[in-house]
Amino acid sequence: MSFKVAIVGATGNVGREMLNILEERGFPVSEVVALASRRSQGTEVSFGDRTLKVKSLDQYDFSDTDICIMSAGGNVSKEWSPKIGKQGCVVIDNSSAFRYDQDVPLIVPEVNPDAISLFTRKNIIANPNCSTAQLVVALKPLHDFATIKRVVVATYQSVSGAGKEGMDELFTQTRAVFVADQVDVKKFTKRIAFNVIPHIDVFLDDGFTKEEWKMVAETKKMLDPKIKLTATCVRVPVFIGHSEAVNIEFEKPITADEARDILREAPGCQVLDKREDGGYITPLESAGEDATFISRIREDSTIDNGLSMWIVSDNLRKGAALNAVQIAELLVERSLIQPKKKAA
Ligand SMILES: NC(=O)c1ccc[n+]([C@@H]2O[C@H](COP(=O)([O-])OP(=O)(O)OC[C@H]3O[C@@H](n4cnc5c(N)ncnc54)[C@H](OP(=O)(O)O)[C@@H]3O)[C@@H](O)[C@H]2O)c1
């Protein structure tokens, strides 16, 4: 059994990674179609050792396509996902457009796979925000063991989380600093080269940013609505890999050793935690990897049942493309989808 899969946003950071991951994991495809805006029509992207010619989304007919992985931003998704879903093609959406819709499941396969069955309501499944995806992969097994009451998280998010333009801006500004050229600020609100910016997405009335709000709302939707979470989201001059300094308060006792043992066995997690120089993960090492890495696990004696830890993952993979492909795999494993065209 194999499926016709369309990637919308195939020329973008996440779209390209999706093509790589579909290939790497041997997802059963009968055909892969690369879609983007009219600007990219006719350009080429790689799928394994094949080259795909990019087609324009607004001229593509989805009626014989089985799965559409959308990665072209919220506005494109709001306009297109419902139409594509109505044509009987299951949409896996990377944007925030449908994440908080009661009729759209928000899925991290290691965390809440059973919620996927809801997808038939709109034929849309949402992929979480990159910072939330890696966080809940690590929180879930700890929550099952000791019940999380409250989480305080500060993120250190790479520029690739802001798309191709974000990566270009870090590169261009860094070069400009070295050659004493003028440093232009376009994509971010302040200079990102040799700096950090405590602001991602728009400001809300309560002073938090939308990125911070997303982490709260998505953790509640996927893991447990009773968990209290507060976040500070910060952009840092790293190309790929989001890092998080996390403090967790549990209802029941849990030691650092117990947490380490639980996380070692947990799906999607890899513990790298030696109390010595270099005995922890950094975002540079996480780039290109599938795991959510956990380091610096230690007890926080300032609260009852408290732990602190450092969580790092490749935001383009577990934070976006890998999770989306895992959702597609879950649809197939659970026989929730059948190819429209039967193999000859
Ligand atoms: N980067 C991350 O860490 C991350 C994590 C989770 C979720 N996401 C989400 O994934 C999406 C894409 O992110 P990205 O980092 O890949 O961005 P990106 O590198 O800027 O790529 C954007 C893609 O969207 C396409 N696109 C833009 N307007 C379009 C239109 N009107 N019709 C069809 N295609 C259009 C672009 O095509 P052209 O080349 O033709 O312009 C390009 O392929 C966003 O929704 C983002 O929020 C990103």
Automatic annotation (TrEMBL):
Binding, substrate: 157, 235
Record's signal peptide: none
Keyword terms, alphabetized: Amino-acid biosynthesis, Diaminopimelate biosynthesis, Lysine biosynthesis, Methionine biosynthesis, NADP, Oxidoreductase, Threonine biosynthesis
Enzyme class: oxidoreductase
An example Gene Ontology molecular-function term: NAD binding
Pathway: Amino-acid biosynthesis; L-lysine biosynthesis via DAP pathway; (S)-tetrahydrodipicolinate from L-aspartate: step 2/4; Amino-acid biosynthesis; L-threonine biosynthesis; L-threonine from L-aspartate: step 2/5; Amino-acid biosynthesis; L-methionine biosynthesis via de novo pathway; L-homoserine from L-aspartate: step 2/3
Superkingdom to which the source organism belongs: Bacteria
Full protein name: Aspartate-semialdehyde dehydrogenase
